[in-house]
Amino acid sequence: MKLLVSSDDSGLVKEVIFNRGTDTSKKDGKQPKSIKNFCSEPQITSKTYLLNFADTYLIASRYGGNVSVYEYTNEEIELEDEEMYKLLHSFKLDVDKSDIPIALIALESLESIIVAYESGVVYIINLSDEKFEFKPIPIKVSDEPISTFVQNPYDNGIFAFGGKENDAKIIRLYEKSLNAEVFKTKKVSEAFIPQVIFNAKNVKNDHLDLRVPIWITQILFLQDHPENGYKFITATRYGQLRLYDTTYGRRPTKDYKVCEKPILTLTFGNQQQTEVIVTDTHNLIAKYSLTDIDEKAYKTISASAGEIRKPVPKLLGKFSEGGNTGATFGIATNEELLITGGLDRYVRVFDIVSRELLAKVYIGVEISSVIIVNAEDELTEEELAAETPKIQRKKRRDLALEDKEESDEEELWNQLDERNKKQRTK
Fold first, then answer.
1. Which of 77-86, 139-148, 250-259, 336-345 has the lowest mean pLDDT?
2. Could you tell me if 240 and 361 lie in one domain?
3. Is 98 left (phi over 0), alpha (psi -120 to 50) or beta?
4. CA 129, CA 57: separation in Å to the nearest integer?
5. Residues 157 and 87 in one domain
6. CA distance 353 to 411
7. Rounded Cα distance, 121 and 319, in Å
8. Which of 11, 13, 106, 124 is least crowded, fewest Cβ atoms below 10 Å from its Cβ?
């Protein structure tokens, strides 16, 4: 298994190679195969976001408007360390030194990236020119500070953002038909004009008739959406999850309190998008259902209104094995794995279904983002020979099951062919 991990402390990138079962917290535990530092050119700054752009470039966005483009190294190519992740170009964006980068997004249809900042300014940087001569295009999307800026992966040109006292907004940043050729024209700036198409409205006042504060920290678009509308989820700094359907009005259709601490990350927990995984500023890494709701799970006592109960998504379980401590900022998933990293300087790998801890590696730096390069274990002949009989039996069963499914499928096609021949004969 190979990961790229960014450091909040130094701004460098660590390449970590290890197998399932690795645990550096145990004296006699299995150790990682290697942990190497890359992208450590002079004068780099901290708070690093990483992005794999089309398996071609590794992009790093750091404090102070520093955006670095590195050559992405395919794990199948054997290179010397000094040849890996070479710096190809650095952009210096015109942002205030105190402005914090909050998002790094790939726009593969435009051969570009977006770097978003807390001030409400986003930069579009085109990467189609190998000399990187296209100038970054600044766009002001919000007059108020923002804490998150996300792309709708199911509708080209659609984005959403929100922040402190800045409720969720959906914008069209560019037309769906736009392509990378626009960067070669003189009217490139005119192609990126944000248009607000949805502005969320706060929930109703609470039981004391007090206004509920707003602080959006994360937004997720759902693939399932109504015609001429969108469904999305927001997470807040007050531990809330809110579900929206833009065709049903501006207020959320569902409002759930899932934790007491601020939610930092929000991602789907399965391919069907019926589960979400949240992390907070304390030690929570938990999976919640979006379809199985306990209508009376959240209880509070009011002197004026008495006992108040509110619905809460069912807690499907916590990823607590391995003793997570501190905020979790970096998170990556695939169909099988959940990988986390944060303040306690450990990378943890969990089975996303069973929540079993598969590996735990001490990195030595605070982690802000994680990229999965290769999720498969790299076993030597000795390690293969040392696999337990139970694992070997499971692999044999899996292979036998695959062979049976292929055989059943082939038999089905043969039956269909015979039926077609008989019909043609008749």
1. 77-86
2. yes
3. alpha
4. 13
5. yes
6. 32
7. 35
8. 106
Tell me the torsion sign for CA atoms 273, 274, 279, 285. Answer: negative
Report DSSP letters for 367-426, one per residue: EEEEEEEE-S----HHHHHTS-HHHHHHHHHHHHHHHHHHHHHHHHHHHHHHHHHHHHH-
Whether residue 266 sits in one domain with residue 193:
yes
Structure tokens given for 348: 């943890």
Alpha carbons within 13 angstroms on the beta-carbon side of residue 406 total 6
**Could you read off the pLDDT of 18-40 as tens digits, one per residue?**
999 999 999 899 999 999 998 87
Rounded to the nearest integer, the mean pLDDT of the chain is 88
Q: Which domain holds residue 403?
A: 387-426
Sheet strand arrangement including 275-280: 263-268, 275-280, 285-302, 306-318
**pTM, full prediction:** 0.86
Q: Are residues 391 and 377 in the same domain?
A: no
Q: What is the pLDDT of residues 252-264, one digit of tens each?
A: 999 999 999 999 9
pLDDT at position 385, please?
Answer: 66
The total number of structural domains that make up the chain: 2
Q: Measured in whole angstroms, how far is the alpha carbon of residue 25 from the centre of its chain? A: 26
pLDDT band for position 46 (50/70/90)?
A: low
Please state, in angstroms and rounded to a whole number, the distance separating the CA atoms of residues 210 and 285: 30
